[in-house]
Every structure is written in structure tokens, then in C-alpha cells.
Design goal:
Blueprint lengths: L8 E5 L2 E14 L2 E12 L8 E6 L4 E2 L10 E4 L4 E3 L3 H13 L10 E4 L1 H11 L8
Parallel strand pairs: 4-8
Antiparallel strand pairs: 1-2, 2-3, 3-4, 5-6, 6-7
Helix pairs in contact: 1-2
Length: 134
């Protein structure tokens, strides 16, 4: 039986438990319709810290799933790094990148981070530190 995509998933990182979900939303910009993927990680147990929201908004040179031919959860640069936000390893790599940038799970309020600022570091970590040669 397939997993319910709306049900939070569990991730354990460095002895701490997080529940994570992935959401897709649409907005309107000056240039028309815009898609956005939001990965939300919530420290557990509830009340021990605020959620981290990693947001990937559509923009020039970037892709965010909005239908065919892209798969659900795929985000990336048209000519560069990419991740599938349904993959637990990608979620862990983004969490590690956010922690490296100073996010503290104990913070009580929600924190929102632009996912594009984390993508290259997370993709490199996910690929074992091997990035494209320039």
C-alpha cells in the first residue's frame, strides 16, 4: 500500500527527532502564476522548538514542480544542482545545511529559510561531496 503523502514522516538526525512534511502552493506574481515547494521540519517532541520552513520559490534558472514533465518534489537549477524533496537523504542534507548556517532547533518560533541558499551545499553533501567540475 502506498504511503500517504500528507502524513508527516520521521527523521532522526544526531540523536534528535524531527517530523517533516512537504507542501506545494501557488501564488501570483507580476509575471503570472508561481509555484512554491515548502519543506517543514518540526523538532520533537512538540514544544521543544519551532518549525523550520525551507522554501523553494519558482524563479529564473530554477525549476519547481508544477506538473509534467517534472516529478513531484524535484527542485533545482536548470543547469546545476537538484534534489528530490521526497527523499529522506535530501531532507537530511538540507537540515544539515540549515544547521551549518546557524539554525537552532531549540528556537521557539517558526523560522523560514530560502531553500535556494542551501541547495548547492545540500546537493553536494547528498552526492558525497562530489560536485560538477567547472
Amino acid at each position: 500500500m502506498p504511503r500517504n503523502p500528507r502524513k508527516p514522516r520521521r527523521l532522526v538526525a544526531d540523536g534528535r527527532v524531527y517530523m517533516w512534511t512537504l507542501g506545494h502552493s501557488h501564488g501570483v506574481t507580476d509575471s503570472g502564476q508561481s509555484c512554491c515547494e515548502t519543506l517543514t521540519l518540526s523538532p520533537q517532541p512538540p514544544g521543544t522548538g519551532g518549525p523550520l520552513r525551507i522554501v523553494f520559490g519558482q524563479g529564473p534558472g530554477r525549476y519547481v514542480p508544477g506538473g509534467a514533465p517534472l516529478g513531484s518534489g524535484d527542485v533545482g537549477y536548470v543547469r546545476g544542482a537538484s534534489l528530490n524533496l521526497h527523499a529522506p537523504g535530501a531532507v537530511r542534507a538540507l537540515l544539515d545545511a540549515a544547521l551549518d548556517r546557524g539554525w537552532q532547533p531549540e528556537e521557539r518560533g517558526p523560522v523560514e529559510i530560502d531553500g535556494w541558499s542551501l541547495l548547492e551545499a545540500a546537493a553536494a553533501a547528498r552526492d558525497g561531496g562530489v560536485g560538477p567540475e567547472e
